[in-house]
Amino acid sequence: MTRLLEGATDDLYEPGSDACHLALRQLWDVFDHLGFKVVKKSANETTLRVYPERMHQYPLLNPRFEAHAEDWGTDFDGDCLVITALAKEPDPVLNEHLKTFNHDEGTFIFDGESAGGYYIVGCFIIPVHFTETVESAAIDFVRLGGALAAILRHLRRPPLARESGNGSITA
Q: Which pLDDT belongs to residue 161?
């Protein structure tokens, strides 16, 4: 599936494409507006580094746009924002807390594997909606922002009330 965005000349789902970078720049603004802390993205990165409230507070969130939510076993099809949640090491309290995320527009899928020096807690899968014309589309960031705000509220609510020694939020 190819998705052309207004203001870009190539496919949103091609990592490193102009459309991918444009969407991530726009997504940065939404995360920042909601109160997340976003680390500067280098030109060659295909995701953002997003923290719930302050730098180096875990989980670290890495969002990316994908074409097929159904590949994740969701109950919705089509375009989605996949937000990988990473920690420095396994944290049973964080794992259980993220598993309880439930929102009308999204779900959390537990992973529980280690890779590249991080522990992959799992992924938030959020449907992405567009306003479309014949030639291109624009991401509905207002609607997407509602789901992102729900993720932030979930991360801030108990039992995740204090920070452990490894930088993760814990009970």
A: 46
Helix pair angle (141-156, 18-34), 10° resolution? 50
55: exposed, middle or buried (Cβ count in 10 Å: 0-12, 13-18, 19+): exposed
Q: Domain spanning 18-170 has what CATH number? A: 3.30.1460
Position 72 pLDDT exceeds 60 = yes
Q: Tokens standing for 165?
A: 């020694």
Regarding pTM above 0.70, the answer is yes
pLDDT at 18: 92
Rounded to 5, what percent of the chain is helix, strand, coil?
25, 35, 40
Q: For the chain, which residues make up each domain, given as ranges?
A: 18-170
Express each pLDDT in 99-143 by its tens digit: 999 888 889 999 999 998 999 999 999 999 998 776 778 999 999
For residues 24 and 47, give the distance between their C-alpha atoms in angstroms, rounded to a whole number.
Answer: 7
CA distances from 139 to 42, 94, 128, 154 (A): 22, 30, 7, 24
* Cβ-based burial of 90 (10 A; exposed 0-12, middle 13-18, buried ≥19): middle
